[in-house]
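README: folding subset

This subset contains proteins for which both the sequence and a predicted structure token string are available. Records are stored as plain text. Below is the entry for Phage head closure protein (111 residues), shown exactly as it appears on disk.
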Amino acid sequence: MAEPGKMDRRITLYEPGAETGRDGFNAPILAAPTAREVWAAYAPASDRERMQSAEVGATITARFRIRWSPDVAPLSPVWWLVFEGRTFDISGVKEIGRRDGIEITASARAE
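--- output ---
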């Protein structure tokens, strides 16, 4: 269950813009990404989880829990999020319960 009292962090989720056409090199032209700001619970991944994922380089892996809503229902790994000024790539999305919440696994470069 997504616990509202623990959702004390603000994150911004970005959905890539839709393709609006093609340029002269046949590369897609994308509209501006759509941003959604939501409350989230933040939990850094444990050292054991980091070792098991065999990540190379300095990265920060974390889990974010947000409330389910139709606005964030299409969330997928092609989206990204910004938390405390750092951009995280989303690697996993799981529904919590029956439209109760969403758990996001994401990683960012540790700079």
